[in-house]
Specification:
The chain has 475 residues and is an alpha/beta fold. It has 2 domains: 249 residues, FAD/NAD(P)-binding domain (3-Layer(bba) Sandwich); 135 residues, FAD/NAD(P)-binding domain (3-Layer(bba) Sandwich), CATH 3.50.50. 24% of the residues lie in helices and 16% in strands. The protein is built from 13 helices and 15 strands. The strands form 4 sheets. A 5-stranded parallel beta sheet has the order 3-2-1-7-15, covered by helices on one side. Helix 1 crosses helix 3 and helix 7 packs across helix 8. The longest helix has 16 residues. The structure holds flavin-adenine dinucleotide. The site of flavin-adenine dinucleotide (FAD) has 38 residues, from helix 1, helix 2, strand 4 and helix 11.
Length: 475
């Protein structure tokens, strides 16, 4: 065990996405040394994967207060408030400059994947003096080495991007799916069809699997590719019987750009550009290297053919490396116990979760917190801005400032991005990024799921993309 007093050890932040970097900024602001461990080759590696997607939340809701403080000292030009950036712009104009500040750059280790979190000399069953024993964080690095770090607290901000829901039924991978993902036959979610990943799709047949807006995003991109390359063929597999719910509000949508894209998707389906396989589940992938995919339509076996399959079936948290940590999770959505019922998409179609902090995010394990996208478990409605309030409070709790930890400081406007009653998602297609006025929650044009205006709550649409499987949505 280290000889250093616990308070002299750093606090580990797992992941350097928007919320992990914000946590690090709050730690610095409180005079606590952060150690940010990032699996990817660059900070915000997950956002970089979906860099071609336009955000639905404008700049003014994407920047953390403590991060703004660090950046202000560097002469950074804050991006304009109402513009909707792409993921790539979020990195270029905010996350990269933040990661390069003098306070953070040496604190971030990239290519460093956390593979286990435990307590020094104690497994999960060791109770005596547990809270005063340093955490042991084990990493596997891209050069093949491993390392152990001893730290005073752990903030897990590792997101869910790397653990998509399986395509198969019952929340399980279909036979052959693991191999199909490994070979690239099943791609990553939200590929950049008209950009970086174009050659995988150009002139080929692609099946998009899923019934939410991630699926819609990819289908529209494939249709754009097909305009230039007519041999490109597009299939859409979804469990529900009618794709209409994915079209959203169309001309009634609170976000006109999103409504227009819903209408475009409908047109592509009705004109036969997109070949729809409704009421269909995938039951197996060929391991013989051919393009046959076993499926069931209305319970009857069918065979589908494709060169590529794009999964758009949502995400779930990776809890494997937390096996030695005492967690208290909601049994349904796998979010921290108190938070789960507030975000369960079965009951909260608009994601109107009250701001929350260390108290709601705590676990039986002292000084251990899951924050950010991962804190929402399988629920799809997470907002960066909510994450920034989470880490402000969590860092205050780690610093021993319980008064600040309990204070709610999130002041969100009485606006929201609500779906129609069709359901939607935080990655609803926004088309070419630009400036969009958010509708007022509860306003007639705000969409069917919005209740009356709720101050300090931003309504974010739910869907199936980030966690809840399409199967659950179809039930
Ligand atoms: C397509 C898309 C669009 C979205 N649009 C919006 C939007 O407009 N507005 C909004 O508020 N929210 C949006 N979100 C939701 C959410 O705010 C983002 O996903 C945001 O990036 C979450 O931040 P995070 O820091 O929690 O996680 P992430 O950004 O996912 O970052 C997690 C980091 O942890 C790293 N990591 C993972 N596992 C490990 C490990 N074991 N060890 C070390 N590092 C690890 C990853 O490489 C990654 O860099 C969107 C999400 C998606 C997918």
């Amino acid at each position: 065990m280290t000889d250093k007093p616990l308070a002299d050890l750093p606090v580990v932040v797992i992941g350097s996405g928007p919320v992990g970097l914000a946590a690090a900024a709050h730690l610095v602001t409180r005079g606590i040394r952060p150690l940010v461990l990032e699996a990817g080759p660059t900070p915000a590696a997950a956002v970089a994967e979906w860099g071609h997607i336009g955000l639905f939340s404008p700049w003014k809701y994407n920047i953390d207060e403590a991060a703004r403080g660090l950046l202000a000292a560097t002469g950074w030009q804050e991006p304009v408030g109402d513009h909707l950036p792409t993921g790539a712009e979020l990195i270029r104009d905010y996350l990269k400059p933040l990661a390069e500040t003098a306070e953070l750059r040496d604190a971030i280790l990239t290519n460093t994947r956390v593979v286990a979190v435990s307590r020094v000399g104690k497994d999960r069953t060791g109770t005596s003096q547990r809270g005063s024993t340093p955490f042991l964080v084990r990493t596997q690095n891209s050069d093949g080495t491993t390392a152990d770090f001893q730290v005073r607290a752990v903030i897990d901000a590792s997101g869910t991007w790397e653990s998509p829901n399986p395509i198969g039924q019952s929340g399980l991978a279909a036979p052959g799916e693991v191999e199909a993902r490994r070979s690239g036959f099943v791609t990553s979610p939200l590929p950049d069809v008209v950009g970086r990943d174009r050659e995988k799709f150009d002139g080929r047949k692609t099946l998009v699997v899923g019934g939410g807006h991630s699926a819609a995003n990819t289908l529209l991109a494939l249709a754009e590719l097909r305009e230039e390359s007519p041999d490109t063929r597009i299939g859409w597999v979804l469990r529900r019987a009618d794709p209409a719910s994915v079209y959203g509000g169309e001309d009634k949508d609170g976000l006109p750009a999103r409504g227009a894209l819903g209408a475009r998707l409908r047109h592509l389906v009705e004109t036969g550009v997109i070949d729809v396989h409704a009421s269909t589940t995938i039951t197996g992938f060929s391991t013989g290297g051919d393009d046959a995919i076993a499926a069931e339509t209305d319970g009857e076996p069918v065979t589908l053919h494709a060169d590529r399959v794009v999964p758009a079936t949502g995400f779930r948290p990776d809890l494997g490396f937390l096996r030695e940590i005492r967690l208290d999770l909601d049994p349904i959505v796998e979010a921290p116990q108190q938070l789960g019922p507030l975000i369960d998409p079965e009951y909260h179609s608009c994601g109107t979760v009250p701001p929350h902090g260390a108290r709601a995010l705590g676990h039986p394990e002292p000084n251990f917190y899951i924050v950010g996208m991962k804190s929402y478990g399988r629920a799809p409605t997470f907002l960066m801005y909510t994450g920034y309030e989470q880490v402000r409070s969590v860092v205050a709790a780690i610093a021993g400032d319980h008064e600040a930890a309990d204070r709610v400081e999130l002041v969100l406007p009485e606006t929201g991005v609500c779906s129609t009653d069709a359901g939607s998602s935080c990655d609803a297609p926004t088309g070419k990024p630009g400036s969009v006025d958010l509708p007022t929650a509860g306003a007639p044009d705000a969409g069917g799921c919005c209740g009356p205006a709720e101050p300090v709550v931003v309504g974010i649409p739910t869907g199936v993309e980030h966690g809840r499987s399409e199967e659950a949505a179809a039930d």
